[in-house]
Amino acid sequence: MKTTDLLNVSDVAHRSGFAPSALRFYEREGLIGATRTTGNQRRYERNVLRRLAFVRAAQNVGLSLDEIAAALSTLPDGRTPTRADWTRLSRTWRSRLDEQIAALSKLRDGLDSCIGCGCLSLKKCAISNPGDVAATDGPGANYLPRRLRVNVQRTPAR
Amino acid sequence: MKTTDLLNVSDVAHRSGFAPSALRFYEREGLIGATRTTGNQRRYERNVLRRLAFVRAAQNVGLSLDEIAAALSTLPDGRTPTRADWTRLSRTWRSRLDEQIAALSKLRDGLDSCIGCGCLSLKKCAISNPGDVAATDGPGANYLPRRLRVNVQRTPAR
DNA sequence: GTTATAGTTGAAGTAAACTTGAAGTCAAGC
DNA sequence: GCTTGACTTCAAGTTTACTTCAACTATAAC
Fold first, then answer.
1. Which residue among A8, B8, B16, B155 is the one 20 to 30 A from A135 at the CA level?
2. Which residues contact residue B138 at a Cβ distance below 8 angstroms, ignoring those fewer than 6 apart?
3. C-alpha torsion sign, points A123, B141, B87, B46
C-alpha cells in the first residue's frame, strides 16, 4: 500500500483525456473514487485509469453514464478488479455493437435503394423508417451512441 | 391548388410519428412550414410528410437539426421538391453512414481482442481509444447518431 | 518563507431537442 | 347554438453530460 504512487487530478486528466471537471463530475456520480490528502486534495489510485478507460469505452458503445455507473457498481468492492471482471463487463457490449452495426447497415442499404427511387416514403423507406431494427422498443436495438467520443479533451463550449 | 387536402396537426402527427409539440418546434426552427386557417390553426401541405420523413431519416443518420435545416433550405422555394431534389440531399449520407459503420466495426473488432486480453489500456485498447477512426477531428468520422430514433411517438419524459 | 501553480467547493450555465403547462380560442357534431 | 375536443401561444421545464465561475486553500519549488 504505497501512498507514493497516487495520482493527482492533472495526472489523471492528462492520462485519461478527461477534463478535471469531468473527473469531479464522475466522482459525484459515483463512477470513480478518490482519497484525499490532509489538505483535501484528491489523490487517485492507479486503477482509476482503468475505470476511466472503461467509461470512455462504454460511452463509445453508447451506454449512458447511468448505465456505466451501474456496470461499474458490479465490480468487487474490496479488491482491485481483475481482468476477468473487466472482461465480464465488456462482454455485453458485443451484442450491443452488433445491433448498432446492423441497424446502420440496414440504413445504408436502404439508402442505396432510396437513392435509386428518391422515395423517402414515410411508410416504406428503410431510411426514414428503419422498422424491424428499431420498431421493437423492448430491450433491443433502439440505441446508438450519440457521437463517437474522441479520446481527447473536448473543446470547451463557446 | 385544392385547399381540401390540407392536413391538420393531429393528422400530420399521426402519420409522421412526431408529436404535435415537435411539429410546432420544427416549424419554429424552420424545418417545416404551414399555412393557417382564418382561425389561426395550422394546415399542412401534403409534402410536409416527405419533409418529415427526411427529418427522421437524417436524424437516424446522425445529423443535427441545424444540419437538417440547412439541407432542407437548399430545396427549391417555388416548387414541390422533385425526386431528384431528395436524392441529392440523401446522397451525402452515404459516406457518413459508411464512416459510422466503420467506426463501430473497429470498436467491435477491438472489443474482440480486448475480451481476449481484458486490457482496457488507455493507450492501447481500441475500444476506449478508437484512435485512427476518431482522433482526426477535422471533418471526418467524428460523429455517430445519438440514438437510433424510432418512428414512434416518444414516451413522454416522466 | 514566499510565491506560483494547482486544487477545492457549490452554484449556475450550456447545448440539443423537445415537452409541459396555463390560459385562452376554434371547429364540428348534435 | 352550445358543448367538447382540438388547437393556439409563450414561457418555462426536462435530460444528459458536462463546463464555467468565483472565492478560496494547498502544495511545491526556490
1. B8
2. none
3. positive
